[in-house]
Structure formats: structure tokens, C-alpha cells
Amino acid sequence: MNSCGFYAPSMKISSSPSSSIGVNRIGFDLFVKKIRCSSEVVHGGVDRVSNTKSHVQRLVGKGCKLVGCGSAAPSLQISNDDLAKIVDTSDEWIAARTGIRNRRVLTGNESITGLATEAARKALEMAEVEPDDVDLILLCTSTPEDLFGGAPQIQKALGCKGNPLAFDITAACSGFIIGLVSASCYIRGGGFKNILVIGADALSRNVDWTDRGTCILFGDAAGAVLVQACDIEEDGLFSFDLHSDGDGNRHLNAAVQEKETDHELGTNGSARGFPPNESSYTCIKMNGTEVFRFAVGTVPQTIEASLAKAGLTHSDIDWLLLHQANQRIIDGVATRLEVPKDRVISNLANYGNTSAASIPLALDEAVRSGKVKQGQTIATAGFGAGLTWGSAILRWG
Ligand code: ACO
């Protein structure tokens, strides 16, 4: 992380196409030298095994790798034809403009906490890591089931003993990428060993089901990965690039608004506007054309930036895995980056835009189907509300 000096992804370095060492590695090595000058302890990350003699945390160089994944989706499937019964649209229009055919929607006793827990359990099983050995849970979501965050409920449901830290990251469709990068920083700079990064969203709860411009796009799901500390030589997160632009919020938001009805307490002569009215969030409001333009403009740029930081080129990418928002966006970015269609992962036909869940959900399906293999390089990018966007170049396994 730049602010604490452990990690300098935005450092300017010359990137040689032949180099397989990313900026994180280079930034890391510089940091090692810095530590050697100022401390008795060597290497970059902080190992949380305390040094009782000096009461100074021992610093040990760490890499991180993705060793497990899992996903879960609600049982109810809603097709384009189903939607055509409630808004003026058609399967032809939706499929041609977005690539989406079906989406899943939470019903009955299903919950985003339940889906996130199921996805996390599967990731732990694949990684062969016990819940007790998880030391951080990052729940990337914009739709927690509690205003104060949902991650601790997942920690409880998984039965992780020792009360590991669990908290939410809110960054809409970029949430998972930001969670992944955050996990790497906790491992490199904080000595954490097993981190669950979960992307889970139920935007169906915030969609205006009478607005054909938005309700056709979204679905609910959860996906998770287990990010594990490893030797720096095995490091599997080569580089990243993250951005936000609050000015673009006007194109895509679900803002808080006060309910208009005054409650009785407001009439007792107290200061005007106090106590405040109850408030809630509006449904998703989106200028689709502007968001489309933003995505096809920024996503190739951020992937180019990450590739340059990693010292890699387009031809080094085994798989392009973008946030699943619109097949036309995915195709446009793949064309710009000259990545052939057979190296692009896409499952949005079945799920629609599942926000923070879309990348780990698509990754999980690709890994379990044998498409993505151990050691392959993935260029991944998220983009969405905020506006936020970012990318990472990583190795699976
Ligand atoms: N069915 C039929 N017609 C429709 C529908 C629909 N569901 N929706 C819009 N139309 C109509 C419009 O009214 C318009 O009609 P008009 O020409 O008579 O005015 C026409 O189709 C074209 O509308 P556009 O909005 O220009 O259609 P476009 O091709 O841009 O597709 C879409 C709209 C699918 C929303 C596209 O703009 C898009 O995918 N944008 C990006 C969304 C996105 O990626 N979001 C990611 C972030 S989400 C997050 O972070 C939470």
C-alpha cells in the first residue's frame, strides 16, 4: 500500500517485455533495502508471529497466490421471456444488446449471506484450508443484509474460531478486484496467511422492476477465492491498477433519500429538519450509454497499465476475465487488447450482471470446468458504480 510504504504499484519503472517480474516484486525489493537500512529486521511483509524479545514484529518477505475458489447462485432463474411479461422488452433485444439470456434472483429463505457462505465454503474445500485457519474475510458487496456490514455473519456461519477480522468492501462491480488487491496488501504488509475474498451481491433488491433500461441487466450471486501467503518466488499477483472518478457518479447511482412523510416527532417545535425523516436508498439509476462508453474506454487502459507494470504483453495473457456486464463491452475490450475470443471467459448469458460476484463466479466455473488451468495467467478487470475501475494480472494456483 502506498500510504504505509509497503507496496508501490504506481511507481514508475521501465518495463521490459522479457521481464517476468512485476512492479510489486520490484517495489518489494526496494522496500526490502529500505527496511535493511532502518531496522534490524529484513524483508518486506510483516509476519504476525511476535518477537517477544524486542516486541517488534518480525518482517518476512511474502507473496500471495489464489488456491481455491467457489460460487453459489439462487435457485430461481428468470429468463428474458419472463421479463418480457413485466416490461416492454424482448428476448431478441436483450440478447442482442447485452448477451444476457437468464439471471438468478433471490427468493424465499435465500440470502446473500447464505450464498456468500456457500461460495466461501467451496473455496476453502478446494484450497484444503480449515475455517479456523482463515485470518481475514473480505466481503465485497454493495448489498449487505445489515447496514453495518455482512462479513462478520459469514465468519459466524463458517464457524471460524479465534474471531478473525471480517469486514465489507463497497465498490459495486469493481469490489472483487479491490478486495483481491486489499488481500494481497494484508498478506505482504500485514502478515496475514489465509484470506477469503468474497464477491456477493443481490442487486435484484435495488432494481426498479418497471425500468426496462436496468432491470434486464442484473442478477444475484456470490463467488469467493482463498488468497494464501506464499514465498515471494511463488507470488501469483503480478500487478494491479485501480481508479475512481466521483464525477461519474451522476451516470450510475442508488443514492440515499429521505422518505417524504413527516413523523410525529417533527411537529414538537424543535429545530427545523430535526429529527431527520427516515431514509432509504433509491433504485439503481443508470445512464447506460455513458456507462458503456466509460467501460470500453477505461478497461483496456487499466489492463494495459497492469500489463506494463508486470512487464508482460497481450500475448502473455492466457485468459481475459472481465466484470460480466455486457457481452458487447467484453468483445470490444478483447478486440482492443487483441485477445482472441477463445481466450475470453464469459458466462453472463446465464447470470446477467452479478456486480461484485461476477468475476469470482466466472472464475469458479472456468476453473471447475477445466478451462483455466494451474499456472495460467489471467488479466482481470472490474468497473462500475462510483465510478470505480481497476485491473489485476494474476496467476491461477
Ligand atoms: N428492451 C427494449 N428496448 C429497450 C430496452 C429494453 N430492455 N432498454 C432500452 N430500450 C430502448 C430504448 O428506449 C431506446 O429506444 P429509442 O431509440 O426509441 O429511444 C433504444 O432501446 C436504445 O436504447 P439505449 O439505451 O441506447 O440502448 P443500448 O444499446 O445503449 O443498451 C444498455 C442499453 C444495455 C443498458 C447498455 O447501454 C449497457 O449495457 N450499458 C452499460 C451498463 C453497465 O455496464 N453497467 C455496469 C455497471 S453496473 C454497476 O456498477 C452496479
TrEMBL record:
GO terms for cellular component: chloroplast. It catalyses: malonyl-[ACP] + acetyl-CoA + H(+) = 3-oxobutanoyl-[ACP] + CO2 + CoA. SUPFAM superfamilies: Thiolase-like. The keyword GTP-binding does not apply. CDD domains: KAS_III. Belongs to the thiolase-like superfamily. FabH family. Catalyzes the condensation reaction of fatty acid synthesis by the addition to an acyl acceptor of two carbons from malonyl-ACP. KAS III catalyzes the first condensation reaction which initiates fatty acid synthesis and may therefore play a role in governing the total rate of fatty acid production. Possesses both acetoacetyl-ACP synthase and acetyl transacylase activities. This is beta-ketoacyl-[acyl-carrier-protein] synthase III. It comes from Artemisia annua (Sweet wormwood).
